[in-house]
């Protein structure tokens, strides 16, 4: 009985400690920066990768620490809006609705100090975390690239943050 209890305790502790870092093996911090709107800091973003420069052929993670409270619905609306804006061609309505539903599942309301992370999985998709809890995994490489494009696309609304995340800021 003691052996079984010890095994359960080890499994519970391992699961409790599992978070986005477990997906990244030997990743290092590539870059980080703040995102502000009208002078109000919304969050601090970090880009982690095992390879520099960041490449869609390798795993990387975007980790965000929030300075303000934001509702899940606002994340989703802003994300879909940016994905549509950055798309090189119109995205079918049913695809956008599926992506919206996936984001609603994966995102949570946040307050100051809360952390959200997304891990890019090459040729597979994306895995989302709220704190140390996985909130969704989506096997859709097109969605994953569109989502990370919000920060990494050359036409992002935050070009300075993009350069900071990619480690290319002067």
UniProtKB/TrEMBL annotation:
- Superkingdom of this protein's organism: Bacteria
Q: Which residues form the signal peptide?
A: 1-18
Q: Which InterPro entries does this entry report, sorted A to Z?
A: Chalcone_isomerase
Pfam families for the chain: Chalcone_3
**Keyword Signal recorded:** yes
**Keyword entries, A-Z:** Signal
Domain Chalcone isomerase intervals: 55-167
Statement: the UniProt record of this protein carries the keyword Protein biosynthesis = no
Name this polypeptide is given? Chalcone isomerase domain-containing protein
- Source organism per entry reads Paraburkholderia aspalathi
Upper lineage is:
Bacteria, Pseudomonadati, Pseudomonadota, Betaproteobacteria, Burkholderiales
């Amino acid at each position: 009985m003691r052996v079984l209890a010890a095994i359960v305790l080890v499994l519970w502790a391992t699961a409790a400690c599992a978070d986005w870092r477990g997906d990244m093996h030997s990743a290092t911090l590539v870059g980080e920066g703040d995102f502000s709107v009208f002078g109000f800091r919304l969050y601090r973003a970090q880009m982690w990768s095992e390879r520099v420069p960041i490449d869609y052929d390798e795993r990387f993670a975007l980790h965000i620490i929030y300075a303000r409270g934001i509702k899940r619905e606002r994340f989703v609306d802003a994300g879909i809006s940016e994905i549509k804006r950055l798309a090189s061609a119109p995205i079918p309505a049913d695809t956008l609705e599926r992506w919206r539903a996936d984001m609603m599942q994966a995102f949570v309301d946040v307050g100051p100090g809360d952390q959200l992370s997304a891990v890019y999985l090459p040729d597979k998709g994306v895995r989302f975390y709220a704190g140390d809890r996985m909130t969704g995994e989506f096997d859709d490489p097109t969605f994953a690239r569109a989502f990370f494009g919000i920060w990494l696309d050359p036409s992002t609304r935050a070009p300075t943050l993009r350069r900071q995340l990619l480690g290319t800021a002067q």
